[in-house]
Amino acid sequence: MSVAEEITLTADRVRAITAEILERSGMNTDDARIVADALAWADLRGLAAQGIGKLPLIVRRIRAGGTAANATLEVVADAPSFARVDAHRAWGHVAGVRAMRMAIAKAKATGIGTVVVGNTDSASSLGYYAELAGRERLIGFAINDGTPLMPPPGGTTRVVGNQAFALCAPAGKHAPLLFDSALSAISWTHIEELRDRGEPLREGLALDPSGRPTTDHAAAIAGMLLPMGAHRGFGLALMWEVLTGVLSKNARIASAITPLAELAGPQSVAHFYLAIDPSTLMKYDEFTSRVDALIDAVHASPPAAGVARVFVPGEQGYAASARRERDGIAVSADRAREVAAIASELGVAWP
Predict the structure, then answer these.
(1) In whole angstroms, what is the distance from residue 246 CA to residue 249 CA?
(2) Which of 22, 193, 254, 286 is positioned for an S-S bond with 27, CB 3.0–4.6 A?
(3) How far is CA 71 from CA 25, 26, 98, 187, in A?
């Protein structure tokens, strides 16, 4: 098959190719597997920009020196329920998973665990980390700051990132509640996906580089994203910066954070991870039954005209993941071409 064609890969093949490419790029086996699982998780949910298509960028950053292939995370402040970590330029998935595992361990010991990480890259799909806590019978919360994308209300320059975040709450008879979002009215990734599918960008979501409203994909990516809920979204984004960039003691915060595309320099992103053990307050089965009741209440709402059924956050993502586990993950021709080129350079077999 020509690498110019769209191909379909199993999730295990995505993991295997990713891990092998990263190991040959200098990453240790454990960290390579962390990244591989996170990319497959995104691809299974149709978040293609955060899936295997991101692999060439990771390799380019490692080669250029912006990301350290084998960074050692350093705990620079520690308490029973709280820690601050310097990631020393570790890739975002590596820093994120290791930090959330620390938060999980603290939550199991004390009821709640929080870990703030500085000096890393974007963690990509934050739902992955929140779900890691959910798998351990905990409530999970994850935030990262990022490249400035949003102006303040009435402003015309980028001040803060759209501050991706996610929350996960395990349930009993239902799949977990998983809310994975950002504080802009639309994410950069979503604009890229609309562009790639040839779909329009609605009004009221973005400004061009001059601060004028735009519906052009390229102008929106070059310009600014508007916060959801106007001043409310911006206010939360600013407070998310306190929990990430400020608490982490990052060298760069808010508008000083650099884009991932500046390959040779540290991006200087910060993350915040929180895990809560509900069994500290009640029996775990009681907690999950209460979450189930909340989900049932949402499902019981009669659908509006033209709506087939009502969903809770994360429900459609879990269904999509199950379909792609069964049927495979479609990788677009452009993304296949990029990954195939990196695989060829490193002697990794490509389908």
Answers:
(1) 5
(2) 22
(3) 13, 11, 12, 29
What are the start-end ranges of the E strands in the chain? Answer: 7-9, 74-79, 82-86, 112-120, 139-144, 165-169, 177-181, 206-207, 224-225, 269-276, 329-331
CB 168 within 8 A of CB 140: yes
CA dist., res. 271 & res. 251, Å (int): 14
Q: What angle do CA 283, 284, 290 make, to 5 degrees?
A: 95
Predicted confidence (pLDDT) per residue in 66-99, tens digit: 999 999 999 999 999 999 999 999 999 999 999 9
330 CB burial (10 A radius; 0-12, 13-18, 19+): middle
| Coil/strand/helix, residue 6 | coil
Residue 186 · residue 233 · CB < 8 Å:
no
Quickly tell me which residue has 């009993």 as its tokens: 172
Q: For 124, phi and psi rounded to 5 degrees? A: 65, -125
How many Å apart are CA 54 and CA 337, to the nearest integer? Answer: 12
Give me the domains of the chain, ranges plus CATH numbers: 1-64+314-351 (1.10.1530.10), 72-184+227-300 (3.30.1370.60)
- Residue 273 CA to residue 323 CA, distance in Å, equals 29
Question: Which 3 state secondary structure label does DSSP give 327?
Answer: helix
pLDDT tens-digit series, residues 227-237: 999 999 999 99
pTM: 0.94
Q: Which residues contact 84 (CB under 8 A, 6 or more apart)?
A: 75, 76, 77, 78, 115, 116, 117, 118, 247, 248, 249
Whole-Å CA distances, 344 to 50, 89, 198, 323: 22, 26, 30, 30
- Is residue 97 within 8 Å of 123, Cβ to Cβ? no
30 membership: H or E segment, kind and range: helix 29-44
